[in-house]
Design brief:
With 332 residues, this protein is α/β, with parallel strands linked by helices. Helix content is 41%, strand content 13%. It is built from twelve helices and nine strands. The protein has a seven-stranded parallel beta sheet with strand order 1-4-5-6-7-8-9. A hairpin with an 8-residue loop joins strand 2 and strand 3. Helix 7 packs parallel to helix 9. The radius of gyration is 19 Å and the shape is globular.
Length: 332
């Protein structure tokens, strides 16, 4: 089979068609280089170019969505997540103060500029997928802790719905603007909320699903929208009707469905195969074994980790994933 371009390879895989090989990519945080558009783009390009990935999942700092509404965080001095200084919603009544914000200004404007800088650098040679957290996930961040939001939502459900609705309005506009600027799709992440470790299916169907679908509807024309479900014991199987092109989850995580189980239930593309929780500690040979097992699933598979990888993941393990995808052979 003739060698494909990165975009041809991605489109064939999304469509479940034969490809010269499976696309591969990884993403993760560089916590020290996520605080300006220029540094974030430089860190992203360094990783992309080092391994010649087939697509770029743009991976900004995880706090910036909540920053847009006023949460404040302490910038890290080492490779770890920022720490929360203050959340804007400190009691259930405070949910009433959550209103839509400018999806093109402030910290959102900064990250749209970063996205544009990245797109300009790659000049159409590779798909860039922009990360968007779900309305439920962002609203919970504004309360400081997941358990706090659950308590607030239980005691004041109408206020919780109003707050999530305001966040949804902003995130839908922000996601749409990202596509208009040239992103191939969004990497839509409910974070911990699509895991039974955080809530149950009834809570998620009430406070998550309706608002997820509104954001996804705003970008329905994009070709490369991905639903990413975090954590173990997830509810992915209840979300397979979401209107996305691909699903990404920790397929090797405890109580999570594997690649073959989801392959049997959907015609959409699936992304995973590599254990993100252990990638930093595995040998390159173990990485290759996991990669070969994932690639043996067949068409419609992107070789990725189940979530963001740790900053201390050895370059040899990252290389092993790229090499496995290139050496496995055509997808018939």
């Amino acid at each position: 089979m003739a060698e494909m371009t990165k975009k041809e390879r991605v489109r064939a895989t999304l469509a479940g068609q034969p490809a010269d090989r499976a696309p591969a990519s990884l993403w993760g945080h560089d916590f020290l280089r996520e605080w300006s558009a220029e540094e974030l783009v430089a860190a992203t390009l360094d990783e992309y170019r080092a391994h010649d990935w087939d697509f770029i999942k743009f991976n900004p700092r995880a706090t910036y969505f909540a920053e847009a509404w006023g949460n404040t965080y302490e910038r890290p001095t080492d490779q770890r997540q920022p720490t929360l200084n203050a959340a804007i919603v400190r009691e259930a009544a405070g949910l009433a103060s959550v209103a839509p914000v400018d999806a093109r200004g402030g910290v959102f404007g900064d990250h749209l500029r970063a996205l544009q800088l990245l797109l300009d650098e790659v000049a159409g040679s590779v798909d860039v997928v922009h990360t968007i957290f779900s309305p439920l996930a962002v609203t919970a961040q504004l309360c400081g802790a997941d358990a706090t939001f659950r308590d607030f939502a239980t005691s004041r459900p109408d206020s919780a719905h109003a707050a999530i609705g305001a966040v949804t309005e902003t995130l839908a506009a922000y996601a749409r603007t990202s596509i208009d600027k040239g992103a191939a799709g969004i990497f839509f992440a409910p974070l911990r909320w699509a895991s039974r470790e955080t809530c149950d299916a009834a809570f998620y169907s009430t406070f998550g699903r309706p608002y997820d679908l509104k954001v996804l509807a705003a970008v329905s024309s994009a070709e490369f929208n991905v639903l990413h479900v975090c954590r173990n014991n997830n509810m992915l199987e209840q979300l397979l009707d979401y209107p996305v092109a691909a699903f990404n989850w920790a397929d090797r995580g405890e109580a999570n469905p594997g690649l073959r189980a989801i392959r049997a239930r959907t015609s959409r593309a699936i992304m995973g195969g590599i254990d993100n929780a252990r990638l930093h500690a595995m040998s390159p040979n173990e990485v290759r074994e996991q990669a070969r097992d994932a690639l043996s699933v067949g068409r419609g598979v992107f070789l990725t980790a189940g979530c963001a990888i740790r900053p201390d993941t050895p370059a040899a393990n990252r290389d092993a994933i790229a090499e496995a995808a290139r050496s496995y052979g055509p997808v018939r």
